[in-house]
Amino acid sequence: MAITKIVEVPLVIAEIPIGPQHPALHEPLLLKVYADGEEVVKVEVNTGYNHRGIEKLCEKNTYIKDLFIIGRVCGICNAVHTDCYVRALEYLLGLEPSPRAKYLRVLTMELERIHSHMLVNATMAEVIGFDSLFMQIMLDREKAMKAKEILTGNRVMADYIIVGGVRRDIDDAKKEKIKDLLLKLRPRVEYYKKVFEEDETIVKRLVDVGRLKPVDVTLHSLVGPVARASGVRTDARAEDKYDAYSEIPFNVVTRKEGDSWARMMVRWDEVLESINISLYILDHLPSDGNAVPDEKRLPRIFPAGDSYARVEAPRGELTYYVMSDGRSTNPYRVKIRTPSFNNIINSAFMYIGHSLADVPVILTSLDPCISCMERVTVVDLKNNTRYRVTVRELASGKV
Amino acid sequence: MTRPKLIELVLKNLFSKPATVQFPYQKTDVEPDYRGVQYADLTKCIGCSLCAIECPADAIKMIKIPSGYEGVNKLNKNMIYPLIDYGKCVYCYRCVKVCPVNAFITTNKYDIAGPSKPTSEELSLSTLKKVG
Lengths: 399, 132
Prior knowledge:
The structure holds two protein chains of two kinds. Chain A is of the alpha+beta class. Chain A has a single domain (54-338), classed as Orthogonal Bundle (Cytochrome-c3 Hydrogenase, chain B). Helix content of chain A is 45%, strand content 14%. In chain A, helix 1 runs antiparallel to helix 2 (63-70), helix 4 (99-127) packs antiparallel against helix 13 and helix 6 (172-198) runs antiparallel to helix 11. The radius of gyration of chain A is 23 Å and the shape is globular. The mean pLDDT of chain A is 88. Chain B is of the alpha+beta class. The model of chain B has no long low-confidence stretch (mean pLDDT 88). Chain B has helices spanning 6-15, 50-54, 94-98, 121-125; strands at residues 38-40, 60-64, 69-70, 80-84, 104-106, 129-130. Chain B has one domain: Alpha-Beta Plaits (2-Layer Sandwich), CATH 3.30.70.3270. Chains A and B meet through helix 2, helix 5 and helix 6 of A and helix 3 of B.
């Protein structure tokens, strides 16, 4: 039968929602992907599915209760959040913790970085369909979790850092246990790094996907391993030298490739670096000063003023702004700016030109932490104004 | 491009113990000072309510000690004790640290799920002697 009529199908750009509930996403986030066939032409990032009003909750509770609320902003990087908030409070008080407490704080944060980076690498293996690698990494991640349990008393929720020091000290038996676990973990991490370098599946899926130029990093204010993988040497640990980082030798890991693979490799190198930092701390822990302050005598009212602290969380630079009116037992304002907030909301340009299958890979390589990034500020670009949204407006769905 | 040596890994995993724990039948290995269930020792508790005020999760309620128990601290004039709702508790141990008489007993027990609402009532009252 001869062809009698040719019908031209116009190119239709399909709108494909990825999320808020999606197997590739572990937390609720909506990526509205506009695809021309398989090619992504535009991505809109929609958030707001996990907003809990933590900043407002902090204003309604006392300074010390806020320590535990802030630890729950993000489950994975809870000690880092608490450290940042506590340092902001210590700046208000003009208080300096003992060197031993500072070293122990760094140890908790580095153990947290180890397990956070291992988690995202495992998630990446899962997203690209390499489930056995996911399970292997998660199994070895338990060693870092166990080390954190020995140090703080819980696998995940540290609740370890408090104004003036830490909440429990460490003895020689615990030191040896943590050291043993970390020495067992190191060859495994080196092995996984080799797998990520050499495995054909991983290399094919990750290399040259979501390439990010250094100029884009600075233009879109991306932070953390995402920036370091594009050759931008930014690390709050090296820049601010807070806590005991001024005394501990460590390298800032950077790479030049700038693709998804480089971001994962930066994380593996940082895990190895964190293991070295932790082992250094366990060997050189100072014994002067009391690391554990008496919690019954903690200050309840803080001097009037405002303070600002920043830390290098596993996902990048995290900042806290705390304002005190000097009269109330509650903070007047607590402002949190998390690394995922910058990295995810500003990342829509990275997906363009890649295929649909690469969208979860690029998103995972940015290490999204949705519970961290749910802050509400409405910025109207047309009128160049910004305003905050009340809970009532949010609840009624007017925004 | 060389491949990681899989044969070695396969043989090792074939003869090694499974990594998973059959949880309700087999206990997970936790540290002795793991932050588990905590309850007030009523022979020490003075009923000051500081733990209930300081609790960030609002999990502690001060309630009357039921009649029929003896051995309550003499300073506990109001005859009240902290009842911890373990469903609400976040195990931060703020109550343990803030207690002026160190009345809290800490354990590394973590499996609190069960048919009844998990509270510290039974554990706390077990520190007292029952009469009558």
